[in-house]
């Protein structure tokens, strides 16, 4: 099991998620956008949602982090049951993600 520091902006709309991601790509500060737009309580902490065991995170987030190519400091938007996440890539999961074939 791996522990990950989760930095994210949670948005309820895919259109808003696309706009926020574009602002990030144009140089906006992740922390400021998290405080302004995130629907998660972590907005009060500039998008830092704490440390989580990888087994406790939604599979979609782990898959997105695992597939991240490190060309961009941001991952997403990633859709989960909670909404649309833009992740600040701080580290990849250390082990290969096992995905149930029934999910695919």
Automatic annotation (TrEMBL):
Keyword hit for Isomerase: yes
Alphabetic keyword roster: Isomerase, Rotamase
SUPFAM superfamilies, A to Z: FKBP-like (SSF54534)
EC number: 5.2.1.8
Catalysed transformations (reactions): [protein]-peptidylproline (omega=180) = [protein]-peptidylproline (omega=0)
Pfam families referenced in this protein's UniProt entry, alphabetically: Rotamase (PF00639)
InterPro entries: PPIase_dom_sf, PPIase_PpiC, PrsA_foldase
Isomerase recorded as keyword: yes
GO terms of molecular function: peptidyl-prolyl cis-trans isomerase activity
Chain ranges of the PpiC domain: 1-91
Family classification: Belongs to the PpiC/parvulin rotamase family.
Protein's name in the database: peptidylprolyl isomerase
Source organism: Thalassolituus pacificus
Phylogenetic placement of the source organism: Bacteria, Pseudomonadati, Pseudomonadota, Gammaproteobacteria, Oceanospirillales
């Amino acid at each position: 099991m791996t522990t990950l520091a989760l930095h994210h902006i949670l948005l309820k709309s895919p259109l808003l998620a696309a706009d926020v991601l574009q602002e990030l790509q144009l140089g906006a500060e992740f922390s400021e956008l998290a405080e302004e737009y995130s629907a998660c309580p972590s907005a009060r902490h500039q998008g830092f949602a704490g440390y989580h065991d990888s087994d406790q995170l939604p599979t979609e987030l782990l898959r997105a982090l695992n597939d991240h190519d490190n060309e961009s400091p941001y991952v997403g938007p990633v859709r989960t049951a909670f909404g649309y996440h833009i992740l600040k890539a701080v580290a990849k999961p250390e082990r290969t993600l096992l995905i149930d074939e029934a999910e695919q």
